[in-house]
């Protein structure tokens, strides 16, 4: 039996450093399926994907033409080939999952907003923006060499969430979306330390900080902060501020933080928040994937690390 996901606050593709992403509410339908005796998924038919563009127009793409555009849009092309291959499988899995559940957009389409579905960059746009044909060929190789491959858990396509940078450890799905998902558990993600998005520091005035959280601005900031509870992924689960217990995910949203893995200190009237990582940190870390590839891991090892207990199957 598959896992029950009555509702899930869901954002997939967080986040390359140059982009801001907003998490959206998503309710998943139950999918009736099972893998066949051959281990091949037979109930998912679409070989084309409907893609919703910013102008509201929906275009139909061949699946792997779309996957190529997602990899070009979502992952730096100078990443290792094995990381790009992992990204291709994850992007394909995500798109087919949306095609079967179809709740985010009409008729199961995926949009090109990386804060909602997945970024997309056509070959033409990539080249116009200064990308090289050599880089395009590298990504084509990543897509072709993984053609038809998808990730499943107990015979069902997984929720293939991914993000830019974990800061050293990924996060449990339940800590972010409140839903336990067996293959979206906190795992170590070493080797990201040199990523631009690893650390970030934001300084708030006490007035701004209090306004963002709806707090009564009284006393010196040094006295505002109380007990902190942490998640399995070393994020802030909740924190007492001015006597109120506030969830880490709420703090991230209201303060505009890169992640829930943060520490707070005060300096006079200023409140200084330092974050590690970038994104919801659930699923595959893109910088972590590249670090694994640099250290010799193949693409299957990468996604089996970030989605433990899943299976690689052919989608037909
Ligand atoms: Zn979308």
Number of helices: 9
Strand content: 15-25%
Give the total of beta strands: 16
| Net shape | elongated
Proportion of helical residues: 25-40%
- What gyration radius follows from the Cα positions, in whole Å? 20 Å
How many domains comprise the coordinates? 2
SS-derived structural category: alpha+beta
Mean pLDDT: 86
Largest sheet: 3 strands, mixed
Note the run of SSEs as H and E. EEEEHHEHHEEEHEHEEEHEEEHHE
Q: How are the strands of the biggest sheet laid out side by side?
A: 4-3-5
Bound molecules: zinc ion
Low-confidence stretches: 1-38
Q: What gap, in angstroms, lies between the N and C termini? A: 21 Å
Structure description:
The chain is of the alpha+beta class. The chain has 2 domains: 8-193 and 280-314, no CATH class; 199-276, no CATH class. The chain has helices at residues 63-74, 81-101, 123-128, 133-144, 173-177, 206-213, 248-255, 286-294, 299-306, and strands at 8-10, 24-26, 48-52, 58-62, 110-111, 149-153, 156-157, 162-163, 199-205, 225-230, 236-241, 244-247, 262-267, 270-276, 284-285, 311-314. The strands form 6 sheets. It has a 3-stranded mixed beta sheet with strand order 4-3-5. Strand 3 (48-52) and strand 4 (58-62) form a beta hairpin. Mean pLDDT is 86; it is low at 1-38. The site of zinc ion has 7 residues, from strand 5. Zinc ion binds next to strand 5.
């Amino acid at each position: 039996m598959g896992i029950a996901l009555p509702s899930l606050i869901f954002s997939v593709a967080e986040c390359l450093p140059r982009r801001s992403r907003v998490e959206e509410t998503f309710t998943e339908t139950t999918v009736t399926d099972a893998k066949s005796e051959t281990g091949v998924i037979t109930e998912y038919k679409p070989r084309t994907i409907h893609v919703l563009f910013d102008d509201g127009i929906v275009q139909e793409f061949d699946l792997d033409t779309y996957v190529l555009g997602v990899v070009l849009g979502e992952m730096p092309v100078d990443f290792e080939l094995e990381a790009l291959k992992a990204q291709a499988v994850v992007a394909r899995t995500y798109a087919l999952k949306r095609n079967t559940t179809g709740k985010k957009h009409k008729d199961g389409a995926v949009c090109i907003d990386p804060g909602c579905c997945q970024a997309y960059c056509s070959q033409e746009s990539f080249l116009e923006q200064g990308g090289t044909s050599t880089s395009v060929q590298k990504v084509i190789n990543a897509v072709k060499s993984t053609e038809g491959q998808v990730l499943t858990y107990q015979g069902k396509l997984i929720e293939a969430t991914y993000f830019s940078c974990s800061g050293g450890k990924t996060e449990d799905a339940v800590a972010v979306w409140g839903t336990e998902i067996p293959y979206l558990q906190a795992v170590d993600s070493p080797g990201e330390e040199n990523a631009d998005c690893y650390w970030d520091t934001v300084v708030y005035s006490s007035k701004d900080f209090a306004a963002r959280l709806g707090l009564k601005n009284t006393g010196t900031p040094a006295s505002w902060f109380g007990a902190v509870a942490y998640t399995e992924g070393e994020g802030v689960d909740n924190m007492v501020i001015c006597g109120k217990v506030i969830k880490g995910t709420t703090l991230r949203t209201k303060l505009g933080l890169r992640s829930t893995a943060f520490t707070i200190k005060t300096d006079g009237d200023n409140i200084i928040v330092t974050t590690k990582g970038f994104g919801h940190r659930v699923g595959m870390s893109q910088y972590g994937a590249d670090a694994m590839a640099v250290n010799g891991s193949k693409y299957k090892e990468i996604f089996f690390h970030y989605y433990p207990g899943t299976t690689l199957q052919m989608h037909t």
